[in-house]
Specification:
- With about 160 residues, the protein is of the alpha/beta class.
- The protein has 4 helices and 7 strands.
- The chain has a 5-stranded parallel β-sheet with strand order 3-2-1-6-7, sandwiched between helices.
- A hairpin with a 5-residue loop joins strand 4 and strand 5.
- Helix 1 packs across helix 2 and helix 3 runs parallel beside helix 4.
- It starts with 6 loop residues before the first strand and ends with a strand.
Length: about 160
């Protein structure tokens, strides 16, 4: 019996990711297995890096659907303490946990597969053990693996 539900592929990746061909090839593999009309590309709608590349590719690919999940940087979660907000250039503030909440929400949508395009962490003040992957994309991939969702990592 043919699959009725769309095949949902979650693309997560570093904002520093620039390798468009690797993303194109990974998506082409998914499309060749399931057909473009059956595939939904889910991503975090970051303005640069892997999300932006995946959005460009998927939006231009006839038949593919795109589902964007931008982080709500202006709104805090109920458990957030007001003092944790960070200041942007220009004076406004944002919730630093918004991206992590968005990542969890994307995993909770139940993707069939995750493609993770992860560059090394480049935060100058990061206290994490070096080397390690960028925080947001690694967080999403780890959450998906814990949920039993297959993850393909592209370092």
């Amino acid at each position: 019996m043919p699959r009725v539900e769309p095949y949902r592929v979650l693309v997560t990746g570093s904002r520093s990711w620039r390798d468009e061909q690797t993303i194109r090839d990974a998506l082409a593999g998914v499309v060749s297995r399931h057909g473009p009309e059956s595939v939904v590309v889910v991503h975090g709608h970051a303005y640069e890096g892997a999300d932006a590349i995946a959005d460009r590719i998927a939006s231009a690919w006839a038949g593919l659907s795109v589902e964007r999940h931008p982080a709500d940087w202006d709104t805090c979660a109920d458990h957030c303490h007001p003092a944790h907000r960070r200041q942007r250039l220009g004076g406004s503030t944002y919730c630093p946990t918004a991206g992590l909440r968005r990542d969890a929400e994307m995993v909770e949508t139940g993707p069939d597969e995750v493609l993770a395009f992860i560059d090394p962490c480049r935060k100058p003040r990061c206290r994490g053990r070096k080397p390690h992957g960028s925080h947001g994309a690694t967080h999403t991939a780890d959450l998906a693996e814990k949920a039993g969702i297959p993850v393909r990592r592209f370092p």
